[in-house]
Amino acid sequence: MRLRHNLRQADLRNNAGHYTPRACDCSFCVKHGAAYLSDAQGRLTIRAENLDSLRHYRQGSRNADCLFCGTCGVLVALVCHIDGRLHGTINSRILNDVQSFAEPAKVSPKSLTVQDKLMRWKQMWFSDVVVELG
Fold first, then answer.
1. Among the listed residues 130, 133, 101, the one whose alpha carbon sits nearest the alpha carbon of residue 42
2. Which domains does the chain have, with CATH numbers?
3. Handedness of CA 118, 23, 6, 57 (dihedral sign)
4. pLDDT tens string for the chain (134 positions)?
5. CA dist list (Å): 127 to 1, 27, 53, 122, 123
6. Residues 133 and 54: beta-carbon distance below 8 Å
7. pTM of the predicted model as reported, rounded to 2 decimal places
8. How far apart, in whole angstroms, are the C-alpha atoms of residue 110 and residue 59?
9. Sign (positive/negative) of CA torsion 81, 40, 51, 75?
């Protein structure tokens, strides 16, 4: 699946209609208009030309890193190390065919404990994530 920016690529096992993005209700995600998409059996590659083209921000519970395009400032993805492996989810709004997805489902991870969040992310997020520079 191709994305709007040259920074990344997501490989999904199914066609877009199979997925329902998740719209987190925390103030950060609401302000960014994010709706996350992932495929635990898929692959996510985030490519950035250099360190300046990919910005990081540690999210509220300090368990995941938010990745932003260093050029336009759009929220691209969230990544988190769980059990020694990098997991991630992408902001579906950056996909070229965003209209192909179902309307985002509202979710409230802020009501979960840290351990519950990590377990949920491990089950739902891409488990094959690579971040490349250069």
1. 130
2. 8-133 (2.170.150.70)
3. negative
4. 444 454 556 777 777 778 899 999 988 899 999 999 999 988 888 887 777 778 888 877 788 999 988 888 889 899 999 999 999 999 988 877 666 777 899 998 888 898 999 999 999 999 999 888 76
5. 17, 26, 23, 7, 8
6. yes
7. 0.86
8. 11
9. negative
